[in-house]
């Protein structure tokens, strides 16, 4: 399969940017999915030791990838302790 792709790229060099951008997009989407699975507070991998990890977060913890209007360092605690 890789030999066929290499043969097509040699005969049609205009396909090289297409492969680069498709590969880059696939890589970035996989990295984002891995970040969501590992860093999101709503995901719990260890149900025995920490069944509700979102209750242990401080109020100024920024868990979103990009925040436009919220300054997380100035937030105060607005939820009860469980």
TrEMBL record:
<dbReference type="GO" id="GO:0005743">
    <property type="term" value="C:mitochondrial inner membrane"/>
</dbReference>
<keyword id="KW-0496">Mitochondrion</keyword>
<dbReference type="InterPro" id="IPR010530">
    <property type="entry name" value="B12D"/>
</dbReference>
<keyword id="KW-0472">Membrane</keyword>
<dbReference type="Pfam" id="PF06522">
    <property type="entry name" value="B12D"/>
</dbReference>
<keyword id="KW-0999">Mitochondrion inner membrane</keyword>
<keyword id="KW-0249">Electron transport</keyword>
<protein>
    <recommendedName>
        <fullName>Cytochrome c oxidase subunit NDUFA4</fullName>
    </recommendedName>
</protein>
<keyword id="KW-0679">Respiratory chain</keyword>
<keyword id="KW-1133">Transmembrane helix</keyword>
<keyword id="KW-0812">Transmembrane</keyword>
<keyword id="KW-0813">Transport</keyword>
<comment type="similarity">
    <text>Belongs to the complex IV NDUFA4 subunit family.</text>
</comment>
<feature type="transmembrane region" description="Helical">
    <location>
        <begin position="14"/>
        <end position="34"/>
    </location>
</feature>
């Amino acid at each position: 399969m890789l030999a066929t792709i290499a043969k097509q790229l040699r005969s049609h060099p205009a396909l090289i940017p297409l492969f680069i951008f498709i590969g880059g997009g696939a890589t970035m989407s996989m990295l984002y999915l891995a970040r969501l699975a590992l860093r999101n507070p709503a995901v719990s991998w260890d149900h025995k030791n920490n069944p509700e990890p979102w209750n242990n977060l401080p109020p100024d913890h920024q868990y979103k990838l990009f925040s436009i209007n919220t300054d997380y360092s100035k937030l105060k605690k607005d939820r009860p302790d469980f």
